[in-house]
Each structure stands twice: as C-alpha cells, then as structure tokens.
Structure prediction request, 249 residues.
Amino acid sequence: QQQQQQQPRPPPSALNQLLHVSPNERGQFQGTWPIPETFWEGERLPRRSAQPTIHFDPTPRQPRIVDGLPFDKYALSNSPLTRWVLSFRKTNICFHCYIKGSQRSGGKGQAFGYLKPASTGNSVNLVVLPYDFEQLALLVHQLVKVHRLHPVPAWSQRFQAYVSNLPSYYAEPLRHTMLMKPLNIPQRLISDLWGPHVAKPPPTYHAAMQRLKLANKSAVDQLFQRLHTTISEQHQSNTPITSSSSSSS
Prediction:
C-alpha cells in the first residue's frame, strides 16, 4: 500500500498525443498490427474519428511480447504523459492500452499494446501487438513448447475461443506471421485451427474501408501540395509566411 501511494499520479489528460512513425529505407511506412476500431464489424460502418482515442491502464505491469511474432513500435512526442511514464524511473514496466468498443461484447476491449519507456529511459514508445496479446502469448507458448505443434483438443478449443473474439482485420496478419519464421507453423495446422471460427466482416466492410483510405490519402496529398506551393511562393518572394486571417495595420 505504501508503494502504491508513492507512485506518480497519472496526468489528467493526454489528448492529441503525437506518434512518430518512421519510414523504412524505401520511404515506406510499414506496420504489422492495426490499432483496433471502436466497434465490432456489422452490416454498417459507424462514423468515427480519423484519430483513435487510446485508453491506458495506469497500473504498471511487466512488458510481454508474443514469442515468434513481430511487434510495432512508435515513439511518443514529449508531453505530460511521457514525463509521467518516465517519472517511474524504470524501463522494465509498461501500461496496457485499449480501444473502447473494440471487443465483440463491447466494454473497454482487450489490450492491443502498451506504453513502455525506451531502454535509454529518455523517451516513451507505444508498442503495438496482436489483439489480446497476453492470451495469445500463452497459447503460442503452449502450442510450440508444450505440445510441439501437435495440439490437444482442449488447447484447440481455447485457441478457437480466442479467434472467435478476435476482430476480423487481425486474422490475415496473424495467420501470415504464424506461418513465417521463426514459428513456421504448418499451413494445414493453421487452416485446422481457424476453420469457421474466425469472424468475417460483411462484404461492404473492405470496400468501405478502401474508399475511406483513398479519400483520406487524397485529402492529405492536397494539403501537402498547398503547403508546398505556399512555401515555394514565400521563398521566391523572400517574405515571411503570415496567417491569412491577420489584419494589416
């Protein structure tokens, strides 16, 4: 109880937190795992913000990954939130992150990643993993280390229960990474494990998401083109950039 009272208090708000997404050597932005949606897939897509609202549990935990599966890591900009995380003065702790409404049953959803101090202790990362990664980590460990890729019926039932509560957009990256090294789970076993239990989105889901993706890309491209044009014109005229709303004296 004394240790809990001495823990730093979390900041009252961490809205508009910036994530730094670095491209690879080809200039491409790549990641394996999505950030969950705020809804379970249905016949219609509800309106939602383009930027996710991520909730975190302020209880420190031991960081964990899923052995044999990749993870994505994004640096957070300096803020009251990152300063609070770093105030614990430990790098072997993490704080689980959730998206409310992402689970079939609603509620706060399952953890999809965590906030963790970098090994240097000077910055904080958002580590993104498969949905409900702690349950998946236990299942993968049992499959590989205990059952040696020959699962017993009880394990298969637990895995199928996990898959049935997995948002459908996690199915493809999870199946793909389980087939790859170092897990190398056989294709036949993957097909047997998934079977009919994986949640499938409605036919309109992927088409609607593709339209939104293209519309967002077009809007961002137009914004950057306007910024590029404005900056080029200002450089040519050698005059400072001013707000269009400012009034002349």
Q: What stands out?
A: The chain has seven helices and six strands. Helices lie at 2-6, 80-86, 133-146, 153-164, 171-179, 187-194, 203-237.
